[in-house]
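I would like you to help me understand the sequence and structure tokens below and explain how sequence relates to structure.
___
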Amino acid sequence: MLALDLDGTLLNTAGVVSRENIDAVTRARHAGMTITICTGRGLVECQPALESIEQTSPVAVAGGAIVACPRTSLTLHRFSINLDLVTRTVRTLLDHGHPALILKDPIEAGYDYLVVTGDEPHPLDPVTLWWFDTMNVKVRYARRLDEDEHPEHTVRVGACGLSGGLGRMKQELVDELGERVTIHSFPCVVAPHMTRRASDGQTLHILEVFDQSATKWSAISYLAREAGVPPERIAAIGDEINDVPMLEGAGLGVAMGNAVQAVRKVAQQHTLRNDEHGVSHAIDQILAGAW
């Protein structure tokens, strides 16, 4: 099994899958490897990439919180986050002036995101508005969390903002919720015309809060068990902090050339950057038996 992250890994900085990577994925399939995608995006947000590699087998989306079929869009497995954790997280985000981006199981809820704005209400930032529009996601807005008609179908709570403020919120949530949650914060994808860095040096980040059981490795492990693939026969390629669990758990963890230090530290092998078709290079090394 080969597990591939999307942003910063299979996708180049233009947000597309290169022909070199597409051809390499095809070679891997022909060699007998099961390909899966494991991304922080929701299913609808990664459809163009899945179509480009003709993905038909199940994928892990929403940071591993959902395992879904790309052909039918049906959810095969889900790691939900309970209402108490959602309530505490939403309260912290609103207290800091951020609307809460609550990702749902869209098959069950009928939409992708519930955005809780607060009574004021807090406006969405331009990056999130661009993302919702570009990815054609279904969004429902509410001022209060108690307007949520589907609390049992929540898989993630997040926010987008400057790294300094999100860093402080992340620490508050870690202090309050501890090991009950999995929390990530990392640079967000922005439109080509948008700047990622503020004048004071802060970068635009996303903050994501999951149930403690939801990681990319949790989802890959589920898929591997279903397919009868032992962990030592899994290769995983990634670049960002939320890829660390799958690189640690896989028999072969590969860091992209543009990977953050935490990913590089746990990887057994290192490939080229995403703009240098690093996935293609890694696949060829694996198929040749070098890795």
